[in-house]
């Protein structure tokens, strides 16, 4: 009896599959494991961190700092240095630089980009401390970033 039921069900399944193929319904079935294009994607922690870092950087300052680091054709002004050191911070500065130079456009210039990144950071720290920039690009890389977060109203 079980074989009779199996054999009678088999033509129905074959007819159903043929109908799906013939009507094109099966073309809408997604075969990949990728999420559908309209589905929201979850950002990784690092992507969220970078977006948060970027929101702290004022637009004109972002341009100044970007061109200073990646092309070496601009200098960050005092306002942008203040923004970079006090609001963006060393960790965000380093992470955004590393993320951008990982792209194909900048991979070949990694060494010069890192040197300019350190130079921009050190120049900004120097300008905020009112001391002349030093020749050693590694001097301020280990400085406590909280040293610049001074609010004169905290002591009132």
UniProtKB/TrEMBL annotation:
Species this chain originates from: Medicago truncatula
Protein name (Swiss-Prot/TrEMBL): ECA1 gametogenesis related family
Entry keyword set: Signal
Signal peptide: 1-26
Prolamin-like domain mapped to chain residues: 52-125
Recorded superkingdom: Eukaryota
